[in-house]
Amino acid sequence: MGKFIDVLAIGAHPDDVDLICGGTIAKMTSHSRSVVIVDLTRGEMGSRGTPEEREREARVAADKLGVRDRFSLDLGDGVLENTSDNRRKLIEIIRNYRPTLILTHHWTDLHPDHAQAGQMIRDIMYPVGFARYPAGGEPFRPNEVLFFMGHTPFVPDFIVDIDDFHDQKKAAIRCFASQFGERDVEDVPTGISEPGFMEMIEARARYFGSLIGRTFGEPFAVTRPVPMYDPVEHYERFPKIFSSKSWHSHRLRSDSSRGSKPSETNVDDLEVKE
Ligand SMILES: [Zn+2]
Asked: pLDDT for 11-23, tens place per residue?
């Protein structure tokens, strides 16, 4: 019987998990959840940085996020395939860690490696529990797989509030020095090395945060309805419908600019009157 962990996050390349759902990971570890990250490839097709460099950076980033362990497989950057051999390897990792949740790419992602990763996880979720499946380890199934949003947008099934963890996510992303920002004239410029990249990451988090009345959020999809234990307790944690912190701070600013004292401070009192 392997170890039990709370979250197994599976990314195609060494910085995917940090970039896409680093805030959620940081939040989980701050709640004393045990998280392990697996990078399916070593990122050897990347225009910048060597696989060794990226592996070192990934370990430092994982430390910043409070992750228990991180390791990479060598399943072929740019040529990741949903083969029976790769599925068996993933089944053995899942059976070894026995996570409550798996986080991975959405299967519709534009990047073929991301899409393959997401599809592979979907394909093994049933067989991972088969006693007679030709793979090592004890049969096991996680409680749920959460698919995160990379290149291709989808309507999220839920959004994780990462307000207190966005800075930690940015700090983890900055650990990937070979991938971000200007480093050397020899380095090939890529989308993620553009100066505006971090602003784009922030803009996305702000957009998804705004949808749930928070400042920052990270979107996820699941393949069945999200179960809810107590809807009242759940929704009490969040601002009322049609009220949001961003709307609230906008109102406070405009009130102050008119020289009047802001009359409202409780976000729950803010409602749009129809
Ligand atoms: Zn990637």
From this structure: 999 999 999 999 9
